[in-house]
Amino acid sequence: MLKETVSQGTIRLKNQQEAIQLFGENDKTLKRIRAMSAAKIIARGDTITISGEAEQVQQTENFIRDLLAIIRQGGQIEDTLERANELSGQGKSLSQETTVSGDLVLPNKLRPKTANQTRYLEAINQNDIVFGIGPAGTGKTYLAVAMAVAALKARKIKRIILTRPAVEAGERLGFLPGDLQAKIDPYLRPLYDALYDMLDQDRFESYLQSGVIEVAPLAFMRGRTLNDAFIILDEAQNTTPEQMKMFLTRMGFSSKVVVTGDVTQVDLPRNVKSGLSVARKTLENIEGIQFHHFTESDVVRHPLVGKIVRAYESAEEEALALKEQRQAEREAQNASSPAPDVNDTN
């Protein structure tokens, strides 16, 4: 016997553009929303009708209203559907979870997409030095650049300095064409890309020419004192301990430093320690310095990126466990082997 529909809810959209943003191209996003919901969802024009058991209808209505709140605040919902649905089942809101406290307004109505990203932004607001550590695609560098641009627009700082170590990931600088600037530009390109997203080209070029924004390899930081600046060190796992110390001691008055990196993607020679790993052990108890960690659940790129990160982490854990097992077996074998007879002359 079919269970009767016991409840119904209605949501009205403001306009056609809002419907397009919510439903997605060819209703792609709407299909995902329907797949996540236990209630029945019917969309006609600017009206969404939700029917089913009372609890299911309420959860689905909360879910969709939360998505609409994000859209109306200028955010994107494609990468946040699962989290928003999860929170709606707990009676919570993603739009509230990803609201940043403080007086800085991020450029282009940018909003964090996970609660952990929100905590990261608040850590940057509240501390002079923040380390953002985690896998690719978690937004650690992009959000740091957004905070820098927001601070510049609010006149809390006078300049932005972005830097990276020029460490090859399998290629050689000498094989790249052009002069030194042309050779190092590929290493700095992700930083340029983030700035282009947040500033129009004319203003960006003007800031570059005037020195308000500086994008340079880490080696160019030596010997400087950086006052009234927002300084970002990206790909910090590829610094040596000496380079990390040099960079951190460049910090001057009224400045803020954000260091980002992924300790699982070190491109240094095997016998060289990562400056990021050493800094994490050395500085973790200093007041005013905060270490913020991201996980694969914070990945906001294509859904496959999170799966790739988890697969590599799993493979690395298995390899480490196998290595430890073999080491233990060798130690046990050595311990059980009889000691050589010192009187044996054969």
Question: Which key phrases capture this entry?
Answer:
12 helices, 9 strands, 14% strand, alpha/beta, Rossmann fold, six-stranded parallel β-sheet, 346 residues, single chain, nucleotide-binding, Ribosomal Protein S8, Chain: A, domain 1, 2 domains, 45% helix
Describe this structure in words.
The chain has a 6-stranded parallel beta sheet, with helices on both faces. Strands 1-3-2 form a 3-stranded antiparallel beta sheet, covered by helices on one side. The protein has 12 helices and 9 strands. The N and C termini lie far apart (90 Å). The radius of gyration is 26 Å and the shape is globular. It has 2 domains: 91 residues, 2-Layer Sandwich (Ribosomal Protein S8, Chain: A, domain 1), CATH 3.30.1370.10; 193 residues, P-loop containing nucleotide triphosphate hydrolases (Rossmann fold, 3-Layer(aba) Sandwich). It is 45% helix and 14% strand. With 346 residues, the chain is of the alpha/beta class. About 1% of the residues have low confidence. It is found in: Cytoplasm. Its main location: cytoplasm. Belongs to the PhoH family.
- CATH architectural name of the largest domain: 3-Layer(aba) Sandwich
Instruction: Tell me the CATH topology of the largest domain.
Output: Rossmann fold
What Rg do the Cα atoms give?
Answer: 26 Å
Structural class: alpha/beta
The side-by-side strand order for the widest beta sheet comes to 6-5-7-8-4-9
Helical stretch tally: 12
Global outline: globular
Integer tally of domains: 2
Helix coverage percent: 40-55%
Largest sheet: 6 strands, parallel
